[in-house]
Amino acid sequence: MNSKFIVVEGLDGAGKTSAIEQVVASLHYHGINNLVFTREPGGTPLAEALRKLIKKAMEYEQITDRAELLMFYAARVQLVESIIKPALARGAWVIGDRHDLSSQAYQGGGRGIDKKLLKTLHDIVLKNFSPHLTLYLDLPAPMGLGRALAREKLDRIEVESLAFFNRTRARYQELAAADARIVTIDASRPLEQVSATIRSCFEQWLNAQETQQ
Ligand code: T5A
Fold it and tell me: What distance in Å separates the CA atoms of residue 187 and residue 171, rounded to the nearest whole number?
């Protein structure tokens, strides 16, 4: 099977780490072992430096919404060009913890950045590059934030208002409903149930890919 770019998406604390474990288990089961893992923002020295800047509140300066958006895109294009595309070209499968859909949902929905600006930026920076499959873990914002809070100190984005995360979730849902390459998983259920659903959805998708080739 040709290499693919698989992305896991969702609000903070949605359970992406466990979802990625399920995806990896399925891939291994199908004999696909040449895997590259990415996270966004991050994954290259420049992108990891941007990640630190994005996540940490600055003492004397407020990061503007557009500056934040451009930092995400700078990190993304660096990762896509230097890690993701070369990996796919040499036959590796790439498993991404977040990708462009996060910007569409957080900066577009949460921050309210104009859809036209987001589309222009996307088209200029990424052109027609996109994941083959995105698993979107859907859950109510308070639930995700509760899980994130139980685990660690909240970062600059995680301390945003509930209204911000509700808008982000609504944009995720809107985009997922409009794109057949995004599969929505109900991530509000107990972990074992969520994991079993991810496993069966992903297996189904993998089998379909196998028969197509
Ligand atoms: N961002 C990112 C943007 O605004 N725009 C962008 O373009 C991009 C790329 C990234 C931040 O930047 C924002 C989004 C984020 O705010 P991050 O550290 O990568 O920062 O944050 P997250 O991606 O949210 O990482 P988290 O680790 O917080 O979320 P996960 O990976 O979804 O959560 P996970 O898997 O670690 O699970 C959290 C906890 O919940 C438990 C787990 O065991 C864990 O303890 N859990 C469950 N508990 C009960 N039931 C279930 N079903 C459970 N599933 C998981």
Answer: 16
Is the pLDDT reported for residue 152 higher than 80?
Answer: no
Report whether residue 165 contacts ligand 1, using a CB cutoff of 6 Å: no
Does the beta carbon of 31 sit less than 6 angstroms from any atom of ligand 1?
Answer: no
Indicate which atom in ligand 1 lies nearest the CA of residue 19.
Answer: 35
- Integer Cα distance of 26 and 8 in angstroms: 14
What would the pLDDT profile of 173-192 be if each residue is shown by its tens digit?
A: 999 999 999 999 999 999 99
- Smallest CA separation from ligand 1 atom 51, residue: 191
**Is residue 166 very low, low, confident or very high in pLDDT (cuts 50, 70, 90)?**
very high
Q: How far apart are CA 135 and CA 176, in angstroms?
A: 9
Is pLDDT above 90 for 96?
yes
Q: Whole-angstrom Cα distance, residue 84 to residue 71?
A: 18
Global confidence as pTM:
0.96
Query: 213 alpha carbon to ligand 1 midpoint, in Å?
Result: 34
Please state the three-class secondary structure of 156-169 as a single string: CCCCCCHHHHHHHH
Task: Give the strand pairing for 182-186 and 5-10.
Answer: unpaired
CB of 148 closer than 6 angstroms to any ligand 1 atom:
yes
pLDDT value of residue 154: 84
